[in-house]
Amino acid sequence: MEIQHFAYSGKLSFREADGEIECVGCQDVINGPAYISEEDNFAMHKVCAEMPPQIQKDAFHPHPLKFKLIDVIVCDACSRLLFSYISYRCMYCDFNIDFRCAKAIINDENNIEKRDDEDLQRTRTLHFCHPHQLTRCKVSPMTEFGEDMIENIWEPNKLKCVACKWKLQDTQTFMCLPCKFIIHESCMNDLPMQVQSSLFHPHHILHPRPFFNAGGEVRCYACRKKVNGFSFYCNKCDVDLHVSCAKYRTRATKHSCHPHNLLQLGKSIIKGISCCACGRKNYNDSLFSCRKCDFNVHPKCIPLPSSFEHKRHLHSLALVSPFAEDDSEDYYCDMCETERNPEIHVYYCVECNYIAHIDCVLSEVRQPQ
Ligand SMILES: [Zn+2]
Ligand SMILES: [Zn+2]
Ligand SMILES: [Zn+2]
Ligand SMILES: [Zn+2]
Ligand SMILES: [Zn+2]
Ligand SMILES: [Zn+2]
Ligand SMILES: [Zn+2]
Ligand SMILES: [Zn+2]
């Protein structure tokens, strides 16, 4: 049995798959006989292949929805951002649904709720971080394949939050699809209207600067990496900083290896910066850094005791690399009881889960130099 499908130029035959293969429609694994191409790995479940090229379900949406091939969409039924080989798009308004939701609508499954204009309006918002309307969506659950496809289509933009630069899996976000602008909902709500005394540009107030399709490349003054979509900006000095770089907080320490104060910088800043002592660019490390002299060095590459007895603490303390001990968002130094940057090296006692700033520990061991 052979068929011609609207989403495929060749012929599909109904047969068992040779190995594990996914349906291009619902993206689930295929078990048993299905419509499979003889030429490439295009394959569809029987029920999926029987989906029509156009859907008209007035109870769900008042206009006809037509199939669209290979697209990144935010589904207006399930509010997920996803890569779809086949999705359905309204011929009259900005309304999209992914293949699975379309299937559920065709089958009248009642887990798909109709969304009227008011519902849709609730998922859209305006915010000072972007000049266009943002849509609330989730990047989840998604296969690695889907993630790679989106990043390929979005190149050079990445599937990362413009504010914190972290991945978006399974979190609520707001996005502008045409601009490939995406931000965690929590990061958006935490965005300040200005940043004062930023570590890397302390003397002027930094203001929000939304931009898109910017001509030329915008580089962050702190980490020297590209900035996409949004920055904190000093208009006196024409300086841009990532949100996370503008808000970066860390310790300054004095050490005999360098005449100036050294900042302890973690992985969100140091990517691509090499150590003056060993020459390596370790991503998951931290650096002591003097920005003025471009002097950067790993804590393990300068004379720091790696493990020793301490009079304030019973057990020996060991120098350990950045780690987060739990999911709580607050990190403290057990010695001075002030906040601690979870990206930088600390002294640690395994037995007591005692964690302290390097400089807090050293100041008690020897005279500061
Ligand atoms: Zn399927
Ligand atoms: Zn419509
Ligand atoms: Zn974020
Ligand atoms: Zn936009
Ligand atoms: Zn930066
Ligand atoms: Zn300035
Ligand atoms: Zn220096
Ligand atoms: Zn401390």
UniProtKB/TrEMBL annotation:
One Pfam match: C1_2
InterPro entries, per database record: C1-like_sf, DC1, PKC_DAG/PE, Zinc_finger_PHD-type_CS, Znf_PHD, Znf_RING/FYVE/PHD
Keywords tagged on the record: Metal-binding, Repeat, Zinc, Zinc-finger
SMART domains per record: PHD
Every Phorbol-ester/DAG-type domain range: 62-109
GO molecular function term, any single one: zinc ion binding
Protein name: Phorbol-ester/DAG-type domain-containing protein
Native species: Gossypium barbadense (Sea Island cotton)
